[in-house]
């Protein structure tokens, strides 16, 4: 489909500290978010009848519904409601990255829809208002609207932008063992122990506090982390979000590409994506 396009940049939590369980069922976190240059693709063509029609293609469409419950459609409806825009859209979502995998998925898709339709419909809300519109759609949607390096606190939706110059362009390898992990149960399995604040500058010394609970639910994650840790030329290896996708950062693209070849050869059934941080 031809039209206006946007990338739903894959999200990576370089560190994710869980601080406390809240009375509303959510958890207060402190997380350094970064974004890959690649992710799902979204294409839109404007309709004048107000209809929002979504089609989904690509390697990870299984189990997804394209109706009003889809986060992309909900994002479009939220933008219509907020602006009174009478436009609609034909949307094509290309699912390149696995769903329920800790790297944004539906949140990044919803955020891409907000950015894309704000352009297509010329509603010109701009980033700050799109972030506010995205907040009710999910804890990660505000960060995904921005899609640049930031620290998220609260549910992950209170954003503080940080300089990402040292991260931009950094080669990254994403690896998922094919286990879909829902976010709620992973937070639910967190042991409730506050292991301390995140220092965003010294994030390499930080942690992902959801790795242990996620590994209890999906033990395969441990195998991924072990495989990444054994690679030569690796900077950091860690799980992203609530898993199961793990990432490794490298000093150079060659080390990353060699690492991808090693992982693919040893685990042909695992999903991998070589990218760079943006
Ligand atoms: O916000 P979102 O709908 O993506 O969150 C999905 C689930 O993950 C929530 O219902 C909640 O159980 C859990 N969650 C949490 N604390 C957060 C974010 C999500 O407990 N900061």
UniProtKB/TrEMBL annotation:
GO terms for biological process, alphabetical: isopentenyl diphosphate biosynthetic process, methylerythritol 4-phosphate pathway; terpenoid biosynthetic process
Residues passing through the membrane, by range: none
EC number from the UniProt entry: 2.7.1.148
Stored Gene3D superfamilies: 3.30.230.10, GHMP kinase, C-terminal domain
Keywords, sorted A to Z: ATP-binding, Isoprene biosynthesis, Kinase, Nucleotide-binding, Transferase
Annotated signal sequence range: none
Location of the GHMP kinase N-terminal domain: 70-146
Domain of life: Bacteria
Pfam families: GHMP_kinases_C, GHMP_kinases_N
GO molecular function: 4-(cytidine 5'-diphospho)-2-C-methyl-D-erythritol kinase activity; ATP binding
Pathway: Isoprenoid biosynthesis; isopentenyl diphosphate biosynthesis via DXP pathway; isopentenyl diphosphate from 1-deoxy-D-xylulose 5-phosphate: step 3/6
Catalytic residues of the enzyme: 11, 140
Domain GHMP kinase C-terminal: 209-266
Reactions mediated catalytically: 4-CDP-2-C-methyl-D-erythritol + ATP = 4-CDP-2-C-methyl-D-erythritol 2-phosphate + ADP + H(+)
InterPro entries, A to Z: GHMP_kinase_C_dom, GHMP_kinase_C_sf, GHMP_kinase_N_dom, IspE, Ribosomal_Su5_D2-typ_SF, Ribsml_uS5_D2-typ_fold_subgr
Residues that hold ATP according to the record: 98-108
PANTHER family: 4-DIPHOSPHOCYTIDYL-2-C-METHYL-D-ERYTHRITOL KINASE, CHLOROPLASTIC (PTHR43527)
Family: Belongs to the GHMP kinase family. IspE subfamily.
Function field: Catalyzes the phosphorylation of the position 2 hydroxy group of 4-diphosphocytidyl-2C-methyl-D-erythritol.
Protein name: 4-diphosphocytidyl-2-C-methyl-D-erythritol kinase
């Amino acid at each position: 489909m031809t039209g206006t396009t946007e990338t739903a940049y894959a999200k990576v939590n370089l560190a994710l500290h869980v601080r406390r369980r809240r009375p509303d069922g959510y958890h207060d976190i402190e997380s350094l978010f970064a974004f890959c240059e690649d992710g799902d693709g979204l294409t839109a063509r404007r309709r004048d009848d107000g209809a929002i029609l979504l089609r989904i293609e690509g390697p990870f469409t299984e189990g997804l519904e394209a109706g009003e419950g889809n986060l992309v459609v909900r994002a479009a409806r939220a933008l219509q409601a907020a602006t009174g825009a009478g436009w609609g859209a034909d949307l094509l979502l290309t699912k390149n990255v696995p769903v329920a995998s800790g790297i944004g998925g539906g949140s990044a898709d919803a955020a891409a829809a907000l950015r894309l339709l704000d352009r297509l419909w010329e509603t010109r809300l701009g980033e700050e208002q799109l972030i506010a519109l995205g907040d009710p759609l999910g804890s990660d949607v505000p960060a995904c609207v921005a899609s640049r390096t930031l620290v998220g606190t609260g549910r992950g939706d209170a954003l503080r932008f940080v300089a990402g110059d040292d991260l931009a362009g950094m080669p990254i390898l994403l690896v998922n063992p094919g286990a879909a992990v829902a976010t709620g149960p992973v937070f639910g399995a967190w042991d409730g122990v506050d292991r301390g604040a995140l220092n965003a500058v010294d994030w390499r010394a930080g942690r992902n506090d959801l790795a242990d609970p996620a590994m209890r639910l999906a033990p395969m994650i441990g195998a991924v982390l072990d495989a990444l840790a054994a690679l030569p030329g690796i900077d950091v290896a860690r799980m992203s979000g609530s898993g199961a996708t793990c990432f490794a950062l490298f000093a150079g693209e060659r080390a990353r590409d060699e690492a991808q070849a090693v992982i693919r050869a040893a685990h042909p059934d695992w999903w991998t994506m070589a990218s760079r941080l943006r």
